[in-house]
Amino acid sequence: MEAMEGFWDDSDNASIIQKEKSVLNEIVQTYSLLKELYDEFEVLVEFATSDDDEDSATEAIECYSKFLEQFEAAELKVLLSDEVDPNNAIVSINAGAGGTESCDWALMLLRMVNRWAESKGFKVQTLSVHEGDSAGIKSATVTISGNYAFGYLKSETGVHRLVRISPFDSSARRHTSFASIFVSPEIDDNIEIDIEDKDLRIDVYRSGGAGGQSVNTTDSAVRMTHLPTNTVVTCQNERSQLQNKIQAMKVLRSRLYDLEMEKRKAKDKETEAGKQEIGWGAQIRSYVLHPYKLVKDVRTGFESGNADKVLDGDLDGFMDSYLRWSVSSKIESENK
Q: What's the CATH number for 197-261?
């Protein structure tokens, strides 16, 4: 298809097709490897049983372990079956009440998500960051680009609770902090999202860094407000106002798509609790660093005693358990 005349003339459409091709190739490779390992296992078992071959038996056990690992990867692909699961993800992180403590916690969550993305070979693009008054961040928005980025990261939507000895408390007391993560799919032009010019208010301002320093001397930062829904997005990290407008529109399309999906879920009484107040009782996951170390997902019950590793981006176990829990919950709801 890439060899067709005029294919590369529309770079945006070409990029969408290339991504779809990459997703399909990944699926084909997964199942091809499964078939190859299964066939190899059968041959090794036959040698081991018919010829009493210990080497073949050992190889068969190793092959079986590889097959199970690949089977779990294929099973995960089945769980990632929603229309927008293969899309890139737009991740927004907001500090809760609590000043410096919550701002620092929001920065830790941003690092956790970025480290997870980097471990998968995904691209991370920062769209906006609002620094905390003395430490951390008040909010940040990033785009994570890679196959099934949204499908994996949707498990992180919700309120995250941290319990630790505060590094900002001279009395070394234990503090509880809250911050939220909201993940939405980046929507391409194949999905229609109607945004009329009369429904938009676009404000421009100068990008400001930490300490009030100016990133540049032109009004390049963009704040875009969708008036009917009062949805506000900002982008300040691109060099030009036009680039920031393009990125802000991508985020806005993503947010409006997600709002529409939530309306549909609400009709079926399946609205997610991802946008609850950032505080007690609303958390989806707790991270305890003192007096013991434990990270536990409230929804699925999945937990890890290696909190440092989780905060360094080891989220696969939480994502896998969330996908299984989500599908199971959906099936139970449909059967009621």
A: 3.30.160.20
